[in-house]
Inverse folding.
């Protein structure tokens, strides 16, 4: 391998990085990338199957093949420019480094207790050999494997996590969907404020300046006792248009017998019941009412208002404990064990005093015809028209899976994402890389989307105490 002692950094990519994000090859700007032969072997072993990882491996192989395209052995030894891919591929072409392969054995001494026949240890050995051969270059192993980073530090090789898939540096920076107004807000902004009524709603218009960080459909709640709460409908040229929120805490405005128990739930119901909002994301810990509020709004708009002709519910099927194995039956029957939250909340919504058993059974049968349980595995290629789609446990989805699901929405369809980023069951996702965090951040500035983070638990005093103290 012909490589010069250049000031540019040299990144060794572990297999799991490319399995996670094939575009990682193009995320290191002007710096060079090195792929050990072990990584290529592991990519070859992981290319079969229909899983997300297998698809990423095949995409990685196609990208590498395009980069190598008709290159001679001498060119490969000298490093191939990552800009060899044709500009029409849609990749950023500016100031990319080179891609190097292990064209000759790279051998370095490992501690005796690390067997060199293991793939991970061979990658460490390659990294140490590169560090010895090019002492002036900053050689870094990039891996998503925590143990690999620990072992790398132990043998003296610098290693880092792959950060490019992070939506935010910290989950605490995630958009909450609401903001508390300071107590003197109306004293400072009231002079140029004007208000009017239109279609039964009260609107306000006020100057906020061009540096205002408010987002469309963000909720504003007064810090004083005035009880003022409004939704930002439009921000243009330093002027914000607010709409006074409907009060769903009142029994006269109940949705399928459900009323909001706090201001956060009231904001959520305003989003869920707004036909001009096509996408809603609800984050919150267990017991904040995400599923119950969503189902109540879905039934109201599907059965009573006829805005949608069907409710579709899906979720990622990742077990919390040991997998119970193969489930017999149809698609809906296989999904039923995963939909306990749906069944529990339907019981609450259909529970009415004075109803006979026959009337309750008839209601359940009616609901079963309008609520469909679908598996995510069969969503690709479909288009849903005039549907109310609920994606539960969305924190277990990757950004790519989230894109696949949301792009199924056709005309007149509303998509709701529910999840709790502090309860991620997928071993490959974190709070900052989950598809739920990704979509909240990407959709926050779109005028037809809304988000709210629910914090106050309403399930029971037992559940609230457990959530706070366990």
């Amino acid at each position: 391998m012909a490589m010069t002692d250049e000031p540019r950094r040299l990144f060794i990519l572990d297999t799991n990085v490319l399995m996670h994000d094939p575009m990682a090859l193009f995320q290191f700007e002007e710096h060079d990338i090195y792929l050990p032969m072990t990584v290529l072997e592991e990519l070859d072993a992981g290319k079969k199957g229909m899983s997300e990882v297998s698809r990423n491996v095949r995409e990685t192989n196609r990208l590498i093949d395009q980069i190598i395209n008709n290159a001679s052995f001498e060119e490969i030894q000298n490093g191939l420019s990552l800009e060899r891919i044709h500009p029409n591929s849609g990749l950023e072409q500016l100031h990319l480094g080179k891609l190097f392969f292990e064209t000759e054995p790279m051998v370095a001494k490992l501690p005796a207790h690390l067997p060199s026949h293991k793939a991970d240890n061979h990658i460490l050995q390659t990294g140490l050999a590169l560090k010895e051969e090019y002492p002036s270059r900053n050689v870094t192993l990039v891996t998503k494997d925590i143990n690999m980073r620990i072992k790398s530090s132990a043998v003296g090789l610098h290693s880092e996590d792959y950060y490019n898939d992070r939506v935010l540096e910290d989950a605490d920076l995630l958009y909450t969907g609401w903001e508390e107004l300071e107590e003197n807000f109306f004293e400072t902004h009231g002079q140029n404020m004007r208000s009017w009524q239109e279609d039964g709603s009260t609107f306000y218009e006020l100057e906020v300046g061009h540096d205002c960080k408010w987002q469309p459909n963000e909720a504003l709640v007064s810090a004083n006792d005035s009880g003022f709460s409004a939704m930002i409908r439009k921000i243009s040229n330093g002027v914000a248009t607010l709409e006074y929120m409907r009060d769903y805490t009142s029994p006269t405005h109940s949705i399928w017998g459900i009323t909001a128990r706090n201001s956060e739930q009231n904001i959520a119901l305003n989003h869920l019941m707004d036909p001009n909002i096509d996408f809603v994301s609800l984050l919150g810990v267990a017991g904040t009412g995400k599923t119950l509020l969503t189902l109540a709004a879905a039934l109201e708009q599907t059965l009573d208002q006829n805005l949608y002709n069907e409710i579709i519910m899906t979720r990622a099927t990742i077990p919390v404990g040991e997998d119970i194995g193969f489930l017999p039956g149809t698609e809906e029957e296989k999904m039923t064990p995963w939909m306990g939250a749906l069944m529990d909340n339907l019981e609450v919504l259909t529970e009415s005093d004075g109803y006979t058993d026959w009337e309750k059974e008839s209601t359940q049968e009616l609901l079963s015809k309008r609520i469909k349980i679908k598996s995510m595995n069969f969503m690709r290629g479909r288009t849903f028209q005039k549907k109310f789609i609920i994606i539960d446990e969305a924190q277990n989805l990757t950004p790519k899976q989230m894109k696949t699901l949301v792009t199924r929405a056709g005309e007149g369809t509303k998509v709701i994402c529910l999840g709790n980023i502090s309860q991620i069951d997928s071993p490959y996702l974190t709070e900052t890389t989950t598809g739920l965090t990704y979509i909240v951040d990407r959709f926050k500035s779109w005028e037809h989307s809304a988000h709210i983070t629910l914090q106050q638990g309403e399930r029971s005093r037992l559940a609230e105490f457990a959530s706070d103290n366990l």
User: Anything to note?
Assistant: The chain has three domains: 10-160, 175-244, 258-469.
